[in-house]
């Protein structure tokens, strides 16, 4: 007839999380009720593709228990964003500059340009196991276009690189 808020108590039984809700005491014989429940579940990062709820209706006055299983699909959603800049933004080599083969001095390989990339998770879910692949053109025909010196990361990321990184050990 009217809408009421249920009093529910979460507890743990045998390693299982249980939510016990009292629907009515006493309840009249033949009474029909509809219950809408909203559950907030956290820690679903390791759930594959669904979460299952076992619902059971028990009565102290009846020996029969009604049980139903509800499976709800779980979808993780995250919006990733990749940002990048070059420092300095523009570089021009002087016309008098020339590459010195075999040199171990940094300035003989060109002007230092640092490329910085940031990956951001804009949510709403957390992510793990993200792979970012950057293809950097380092050769133009047989000529060195960019001398790739080093690769670094911050923020607990693992990084692997191509073997052409710093071949002259500058």
UniProtKB/TrEMBL annotation:
UniProt domain Integrin alpha third immunoglobulin-like: residue ranges: 81-169
Domain Integrin alpha second immunoglobulin-like span(s) in chain numbering: 3-73
GO biological process, one term: integrin-mediated signaling pathway
InterPro entries according to UniProt: Integrin_alpha_Ig-like_2, Integrin_alpha_Ig-like_3, Integrin_dom_sf
Keyword Signal: no
Gene3D superfamilies for this protein: ntegrin, alpha v. Chain A, domain 3, ntegrin, alpha v. Chain A, domain 4
Keyword Cell cycle: no
Segments passing through the bilayer: none
PANTHER family found in the cross-reference section: INTEGRIN ALPHA, INTEGRIN ALPHA-IIB
UniProt cross-references to SUPFAM superfamilies, sorted A to Z: Integrin domains
Primary location group: membrane
Cellular localization per UniProt: Membrane
Any one Gene Ontology cellular component term annotated for this protein: integrin complex
Name of the molecule in the record: ITA2B protein
Domain of life: Eukaryota
Keywords: Glycoprotein, Integrin, Membrane
One example GO MF annotation: integrin binding
């Amino acid at each position: 007839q009217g809408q009421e808020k249920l009093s529910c108590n979460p507890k743990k039984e045998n390693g299982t999380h249980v939510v016990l809700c009292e629907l009515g005491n006493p309840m009249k014989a033949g009474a029909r009720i509809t219950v809408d429940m909203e559950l907030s579940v956290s820690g679903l990062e390791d759930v594959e593709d669904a979460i299952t709820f076992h619902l059971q209706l028990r009565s102290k006055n009846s020996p029969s228990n009604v049980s139903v299983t509800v499976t709800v699909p779980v979808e993780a959603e995250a919006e990733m964003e990749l940002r990048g800049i070059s420092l300095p933004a523009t570089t021009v080599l002087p016309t008098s500059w020339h590459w010195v083969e075999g040199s171990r001095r940094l300035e003989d390989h060109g002007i230092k340009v640092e490329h910085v990339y940031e990956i951001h998770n804009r949510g709403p879910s957390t992510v793990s196991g993200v792979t970012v692949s950057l293809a950097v053109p380092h050769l133009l025909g047989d000529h060195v276009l960019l001398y790739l010196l080093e690769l670094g990361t911050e923020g607990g990321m693992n990084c692997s690189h191509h073997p052409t990184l710093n071949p002259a050990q500058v």
